[in-house]
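Recall the central idea of this unit: under ordinary conditions, the amino acid sequence of a chain determines the structure it adopts. In this exercise we apply that idea directly, starting from the sequence alone.
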Amino acid sequence: MVREAKAKAVFLNDRLIAEKHKVSLELYDKSRYGEVVGDKIHYSMFEGLYLLEKKKLNIKDSKAKAIKFDKYIAKAIRKDKEFLTKYYVFKDMRDRGYIVKTALKFGAEFRVYDRGIKPGDDHAKWILYPVHERDTLTWHGFSAKNRVAHSTRKTLLIGVVDEETDVTYYNVAWLRP
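Accordingly, the structure predicted from this sequence is:
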C-alpha cells in the first residue's frame, strides 16, 4: 500500500508554517493553499483544519508533538469563539471548488475567488461573512458589511450556517432604482 505524501506544518499562534517542500508547493500551485512568505508557506487556521481533515497535512505543535483534529479545533476555538461557524462556510466553499482566503485587511472574514481563478491572476469576486442562523445582525452592521464589499469592488456574500452545519448563501448587491 502506497501512502500519499502529506505536507508538514507547525502550529504557531494563529498560523501554520510549512517548509517549501514538494507537497506543500503542489498544494499551493494547484489550489492556492497557503501563502508563500520567503522560504516558508503560511496556512490560515481554516486552511490548516481543512487540509488536516482531508488528510493532506500533518500538524505539530512547537514541541514537535502531533496535533490531531479534535485538539486542533479546541486550540482554534480558544483563539476564536466563532471558529467553527467560519470553518463550515470555508469548508463548504472549498468543497464547491472556490478558492477562499482571509480578508482581514478588507474588514471581512474571507475573500472568495470564482472557480478557475487563482489569487494573483485576478481579484476576488466576493467578500464573504459567515454567520450562524441564531446570530443577529443590525441594519447598521449589515450596511457596514455591504459598504466594505462595495468599496473593495466585490459582491457581498453572507454564508448562514444552520444547526445541521448546512450553509445557505445570500448574495447582496446594490440596486439603483
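The mean pLDDT is 92.
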